[in-house]
Design brief:
It catalyses: ITP + H2O = IMP + diphosphate + H(+); dITP + H2O = dIMP + diphosphate + H(+); XTP + H2O = XMP + diphosphate + H(+). The protein is of the alpha/beta class. The chain is built from 5 helices and 6 strands, in the order βαβαβαβββαα. The longest helix has 16 residues.
Length: about 200
């Protein structure tokens, strides 16, 4: 069944990335951006914040809503920044400042103790006219480690400092050095979305 779904974010990078991922398996599903008010993300987990955003977008638009809450979880920091990744260096959501602070906090930590994971939690909220909304939550994890210094011009957020596992040792790259196609095929969002595909049949 074809459908239209609103992505609960004002981040154009996420909209572009999500639309590309969705198109690989459900080209009949149109992903549109969200232009409504941003809810207060007062959850302490990816799941809580994803549901807050998806519920708000579904209520505002009346459309099925997808929301991604994602970030980087660093082993040496006990899983932080986690749900606070976007605000790690303050409320300005400054990606460069976030990366610099994270690298500074791990400046004395060397491999193999620089393990990290990108985590994406996606909530799908489908409004109902005669009852409560239907809600689903899935999660994708992309294991890797933190680089010592940023590298690459692509991607966004923590991409320049994240080196995914599974690359040839002599040719390891940060995500910011990958093409968009490479990233979309293997990222934490892609891994989460693969679990979501069967649920989109409800749209």
């Amino acid at each position: 069944m074809s459908g239209r779904v609103v992505l609960a974010t004002h981040n154009p990078h996420k909209i572009e990335e999500f639309a590309a991922i969705v198109a690989t398996t459900r080209p009949d599903v149109e992903v549109t951006g969200y232009d409504g008010p941003e809810p207060v993300e007062d959850g302490t987990t990816f799941r809580e914040n994803a549901l807050i955003k998806a519920r708000a977008a579904a209520a505002h638009t009346g459309l099925p809503a997808l929301a991604d809450d994602s970030g980087i979880c660093v082993d040496a920091l006990g899983g932080a920044p986690g749900a606070f990744s976007a605000y790690w260096a303050g409320q300005r959501k400054d990606a460069v400042a976030n990366r610099e602070l994270l690298l500074d906090q791990l400046r004395d930590i060397r491999d193999p103790r620089r393990g990290a994971q990108f985590v994406s939690t996606i909530a799908l909220v489908i409004p109902a006219t005669d009852g409560p909304a239907v809600e689903h939550v899935v999660q994708g994890v992309w294991p890797g480690r933190l680089a010592v210094t940023p590298a690459g011009e692509g991607g966004f957020g923590y991409d320049p400092v994240f080196i995914p596992d599974g690359q040839p040792g002599a040719a390891e790259r940060t995500v910011a050095e990958w093409t968009a196609e490479e990233k979309n095929a293997d990222s934490h969002r892609s891994r989460a979305f693969q679990q979501l595909v069967p649920l989109l049949a409800e749209l």
